[in-house]
Amino acid sequence: MDTPVIRADALTKRYGPHPALTDATLDIPAGRIVGLVGPNGAGKSTLLALAAGLIRPTSGTIDVLGRRPAADTAQLARVGFVAQDTPVYAQLTVAEHLRLGERLNPAWDRPFAHARIKQIGLDPAKKAGRLSGGQKAQLALTLAAAKRPELLIFDEPVAALDPLARRAFLQNLMEFVAEIDVSVILSSHLISDVERVCDHLVILAESRVQVAGDIDDLTAAHFRVVGPRGTLDTLPAGTDVIATEHTDRQTTLIVHARNGTRPDTLGQTEPVGLEDMVLTYLHRAQGTGAPTLQESTR
Ligand SMILES: Nc1ncnc2c1ncn2[C@@H]1O[C@H](COP(=O)(O)OP(=O)(O)OP(=O)(O)O)[C@@H](O)[C@H]1O
Fold it and tell me: Where are the transmembrane segments (predicted)?
C-alpha cells in the first residue's frame, strides 16, 4: 500500500495555447476514495484522462500505481475508467455486457459481476439502451469493478442522476470499495456527495490544483479567524490566508494552518466546514473574494 495511487509532478496539459491543467503536483496515497471537485472547465476530466492514459501530458509527469498510465496491457488492467456519461452499448443486453467484459479482461470476476447485477436488480435480458440513467451507471460501475482493478476512475458518475439514484450509486460504490479493496477517484460538482463518500480531496480551479489532502487533515487545518481590524495583519509562519473580509471594525480570515496548529492566539478561531472550505478556494481561484458563507451548491 506504499506506492501512491497517483503521483503527478508539474503535470501540464495544453490544447494549443489553452491550458487545461497547469503544473499539477499531487501525491495521492493508495486505498483512498478521492473526490476531485471544481467548477466547469477546471480541468477535472483532463486530469482523469491523463491518469487513465487516454491523453498524454504536454509537460510534467504522472504515475499511476507506480507506473506510467496505459504503459502496457498489464497496466491497463490495473485501472478501471468510467467516462463522464457512463457509456454502455445501447443495443447490447446486460448479459452481453458481462460476456464482453469477460472476453476483454483477463482478471474478470464472473461471480462478482453476476452477484452485483442480481443485487442491483438488473434484468440480464434487458438492452442497455432501455435502462434508466441510474441503472446504466450501476451497470458501468459493475463492469469497471469486475475487472478487479486496483484503481477505479469515475468522471462525474452521478451528474445525470436524481438524488435517490445518486445516493444508491454512491452507496453501492462504497460497498464495492469495502468488498474489493480498490482505490477510487471520482470527480463531482456536488460537495455533499464528496463529503458523504470521499476521504481525500483535490480541489481544482482555473486549471490548477488549489489544495489536496485527506479530508480529515484539511478540515483540521482550516479555520475562520475573526479579530478587530488591523490585528490580523501578521500571521505565524506556515499559515496561508485563503480569504479576507473586512467590515469597519473587524477582519475575518479563512486560513490554512499548514502545520496544523490552531491559530487561537490571533483572534476568535473556529473550524471551517468542508463546503465553506471548498467554496473559499474556488472563489479565490476566480478572484471573486470571500464567498458569502451561507452559500450552498447543494
Ligand atoms: N479536446 C479538447 N480540445 C480543446 N480544449 C479542451 C479539450 N478538452 C478540454 N478542453 C478545455 O480544457 C479545459 C478543461 O476541461 P475539462 O473538461 O478538463 O474540465 P472539467 O473540470 O472536467 O469541466 P466539466 O466539469 O465541465 O466537465 C476547458 O477549458 C476545456 O474547454
Answer: none
The pLDDT tens digits for 29-78 are: 999 999 999 999 999 999 999 999 999 999 999 999 999 998 888 898 89
Decide: 45 in ligand 1 pocket, CB within 6 A. Answer: yes
If pLDDT is split at 50, 70 and 90, which confidence band does 296 have? very low
In three-state secondary structure terms, 128 is helix
6 lines ligand 1 (CB under 6 A): no
Ligand 1 within 6 A of CB of 188: no
In the chain the domains, ranked by start, together with CATH numbers, are 6-205 (3.40.50.300), 216-286 (no CATH)
44 lines ligand 1 (CB under 6 A): yes
Q: What's the CA-to-centroid distance between 46 and ligand 1, angstroms?
A: 6
Å from CA of 246 to ligand 1 middle: 35
Q: Are 223 and 262 in contact (CB under 8 A)?
A: yes
DSSP H stretches of helix in the chain = 44-52, 73-77, 94-104, 110-120, 133-146, 163-180, 191-197, 215-221, 274-286
Work out the angle between the directed axes of helices 110-120 and 133-146 (0-180°, nearest 10).
160
Q: Is the ipTM of this complex over 0.90?
A: yes
Please state whether beta strands 239-246 and 59-64 pair in parallel, antiparallel, or not at all (unpaired): unpaired
Residue 289 has pLDDT above 80, yes or no: no
The DSSP output letter for 155 is S
Q: Looking at ligand 1, which residue's alpha carbon is closest to its atom 2?
A: 15
| Mutational test site, ligand 1, from 46, 189, 191, 204, max ligand atoms within 8 Å of CB | 46
